[in-house]
């Protein structure tokens, strides 16, 4: 059972994991250095623990204790209990759904473990926006993706905003970073995946056609602004497009991911 | 040609349209009272003017004047020119892509005008989040929607964040509010549209099946949290679902809109 510890001083050093959650720069440094990440909201906290992540601590207002009683009963981490006003002073914003947990990161699993048994892999090269990463995970989990691979520079799926937008899908789907950016797609091809890059390249075919009848597919998306790097665009087995209305040449990357997952799952 | 007016006092009353853009409450009151809305960024400002909206004024740093020269040349509204630092003091945030315009709202067009010639209408009952409204317009415009109808309480497509996320699609797609909430869907059925509500209702069929072979379709989405009202759910001709992975029962509404538009456009 988690130890309940009432706190009435927002500068208490034991709350260090929860400081200034809106300061992206500071949080990145702090979370990397200490190997932690945050989950926010009763549902997402529960999914993080059920996904196998070990809590370092919890922080919540008293009224959230009951709803998370089952989660707290299975942990021996401290649970800091404080008023919503004090929690806001610590985190720097009003915490929706009141409960937070700080959890230990785990080393990225090896590629083999993530690909084991997967028939549909979503590959995100360089997404910059944490909300888009979270949205891609959420849509992927709902629409048939088995695993996610990330380029070396892709935004962190365990950053708080990504976790929240994903509704915890970042804990449910296996994922890892590709070990070798340059040969990431040929490596997947060599393992029996048809790699399909979403792009506006001149030889792009409609996505439905590119994935039709394929067994194992890796669907590859680039960054919000510039799309895929030339290397990934050219080293994919196929270049594909979501057909769009005349005069319009782009969808938001989260919308494109959702449509592309839907189409690929029905190949 | 727009009159260029250099401003060096951020409290200048002529800049009133651009004050405190992050204060949602204040902006709603101000924009409603004065019948205005804001467009942000060179591309979106241009699309607003090309979409037939009349500028009240422009506000930009000197380096954006060239890129918008063609737009400014066709307007006789004042263009307030000030440094990016001063612009930030007026608006309360760092203006990406530097240019803003304040434009006159127009009365909502009549339903007949919006439906004229339309075969695929997207109907948003009660979206709360401006970004989701903007995303639905952007995906809709890209994926074959001819017109958009909004429930009386749906968030405003001309609110700055909606305009921005839509990339200007709110100026390109015809849209209006439904005049009668209670009979909104039967009214569409009477005009020859098959109304298809996205819902988790027990009699929901896969969307692809619900729209197959239909001529005119109205695709109906509810709010982020609770989905459609019972009245709309029950008064639609069909209830439909986007098939999802086991154990997952929802997509983000913007992702659902994108997938549903893709499927419906291919009916």
UniProtKB/TrEMBL annotation, chains A, B:
Origin organism of this chain?
Nocardioides marinus
Q: Which UniProt keywords apply?
A: Methyltransferase, Transferase
Identify the InterPro entries for this entry: Alpha/beta_knot_MTases (IPR029028), Ribosomal_eL30-like_sf (IPR029064), rRNA_Methyltransferase (IPR051259), SpoU_MeTrfase (IPR001537), tRNA_m1G_MTases_N (IPR029026)
Q: Spell out the molecular function terms from Gene Ontology.
A: RNA binding; RNA methyltransferase activity
State the source organism's domain of life.
Bacteria
The residues covered by the tRNA/rRNA methyltransferase SpoU type domain are 120-262
Entry protein name: tRNA G18 (Ribose-2'-O)-methylase SpoU
Kindly give the CDD domains that the UniProt entry links to this protein.
SpoU-like_rRNA-MTase (cd18095)
GO biological process terms, semicolon-separated: methylation; RNA processing
PANTHER family linked: RRNA METHYLASE, RRNA METHYLTRANSFERASE 3
| Pfam families given in the database record | SpoU_methylase
